[in-house]
Amino acid sequence: MTETVLLVGGGGREHAIARAVADDGALYACASNRNPGIRRLADEFETIDETDAEAVADYATAVGADLAVIGPESALAAGVADALDEAGVYAFGPRAEEARLETDKAYQREFMDENAIPGCPDYAVFDDIEAACEYIDDYDGDLAVKPAGLTGGKGVKVIGDQVTAEEAKAYLRDSDYDRVVLEERLVGEEFTIQAFVANGEIRTTPAVQDHKRAYEGDEGPNTGGMGSYTATGHSLPFMAEGDYDAAVDVLEAVVDALPDYKGVLYGQFMLTAEGPKVVEFNARFGDPEAMNTLPVLETPFLDVLTAARDGSGLPELDFSGEATVCKYAVPDGYPTDPDAGAKIAVDEESVGDALLYYASVDERDDGIYTTTSRSFAVVGRGDSIAAAEAEAEEALAAAGDRVRIRHDIGKADLVERRIEHMAELRE
Ligand code: AMP
Ligand code: GLY
Asked: Transmembrane region positions (predicted)?
């Protein structure tokens, strides 16, 4: 029987999900932007605000969806999984209550504490901004300052890295945040592990390193992620034996504490001199990390989804073992002052063997237009990071001149710097 799958969301991550299910199931998709890549893969693409839980559930029912995959955290926070479950459509994505693991950073830390999840940094939660500023003054060491709610990865300020203590206090005082988390600054190299979770079971995927900073050399403000790479196998070049497994232990502890959790559980880790610590959890695939992971997953993603729904035991996962490099093209000025509404040219013919993923663009009758977020990504694959990087770079000939790219992602220099950084910390 052909399964009818509803995909919620219209970014690069969702284009990757669409590609992973389109060959095996009948795909319907809805998002607030018209993503040309998803639209072409789907039997039908409906423009619906993905945070309108009732509208999404009505659409799922109308198209006779057998199950749904929810891409963006905004939809999870809005209760889209709850509405779909109530409408009798299995949603691969946590209910709003469990998605608080991502959507409420104060809850996330308190949950870790209460359940003795390993890897939790020192932290404190404040509802009063002046009390938070006093804590900054009194704290012996650097802190990361985080609004408790969702900010698209752009709300965190790290003292001693991006800002001074004075700037962090000014940032808080100028903000309208009503709850903030202050936590020990973790020093090391970041990596992501995403896991498929359902019925108390967990299946993990290769570690990915994302690049949050806007400009080459890790300069500039934080973004949603400018690009990312994986190595051959499951680990990354700067990780030592045991680091991957230590991070997986953390994810397993989360699933033990949340036996009803379903969907993707994403762990963002800082590999410190003392091993992996948790920067945050997300309740969905990473964007761009989904674009590194799904193209090398050889087990049909639909098999994972149906096993999750049917409670029949998640399949063991097979991966191609290739390295991947993903590079995003973003509007000029992103993230602070993005040139939204610019018409961009994407020359699909020049992508070659690489994969092209459309992201937060809007397809209109006369072409493709930028929005305020990332526009499209290319992913190269190969038997080394260098080979994957070269394939991604060649494909970037597809990008016209109105977008910006971090060309350094996946290049030998940058990967080497990560290895040296970790070696210095571990001396
Ligand atoms: P988040 O929105 O929690 O992913 O944070 C965005 C980025 O801020 C992370 O990817 C890290 O680079 C940085 N960050 C967050 N928390 C910490 C921390 N405790 N120590 C150092 N950096 C952090
Ligand atoms: N790449 C970071 C995120 O998806 O939150």
From this structure: none
Q: Could you tell me the CA-to-CA distances from 261 to 13, 143, 195, 394 in Å, in that order?
A: 21, 31, 12, 40
Please answer whether residues 304 and 96 qualify as being in contact, where contact means their C-beta atoms are separated by less than 8 angstroms: no
Ligand 2: nearest atom to the Cα of 228: 1
The domains of the chain are located at 4-100, 122-184, 189-420
pTM: 0.96
Nearest residue (CA) to ligand 2, atom 3:
286
CATH class held by domain 189-420: alpha beta
Q: Which residue has the tokens 């989360």?
A: 254
Which helix (H) or strand (E) is 363 found in, with range? strand 361-364
Chunked into runs of 10 residues, the chain (427 residues) has average pLDDT values of: 95 98 96 97 98 98 98 97 98 97 96 98 96 96 93 83 93 94 97 98 98 95 94 97 98 97 98 97 98 98 98 98 97 94 89 95 94 96 98 88 93 98 96
Provide residues with CB under 6 Å of ligand 1. Answer: 121, 144, 146, 153, 156, 158, 183-186, 190, 212, 222, 268, 279-280
Q: Which of 410, 354, 407, 411 is nearest to 378 (CA)?
A: 354
* Ligand lying nearest the CA atom of residue 188: 1
Cα-flanking dihedrals φ and ψ of residue 31, to 5°?
-165, 165
**What pLDDT does residue 180 have?**
96
CA angle 184, 414, 426 (to 5 degrees): 45
Residue with CA at minimum distance from ligand 1 atom 4:
153
Q: What is the structure's pLDDT at 345?
A: 87
- Provide the 8-state DSSP code for 121: P
| Residues in a beta bridge with 269 | 191, 278
Separation between Cα atoms, residue 339 and residue 359, nearest integer Å: 15
E strands along 109-243, which residues? 123-126, 143-147, 157-158, 180-184, 189-198, 201-204, 209-210, 213-215, 219-222, 227-230
225 CB less than 6 Å from ligand 2? yes
Distance between Cα 328 and ligand 1 center (Å): 20
User: Measured in angstroms, how far is the CA atom of residue 111 from the centroid of ligand 1?
Assistant: 18
- Bridge partners (DSSP) listed for residue 219: 215
Residue 153 pLDDT: 63
Q: How far apart are CA 221 and CA 120, in angstroms?
A: 25
Class of domain 4-100: alpha beta
- Return the SS3 of 16: helix
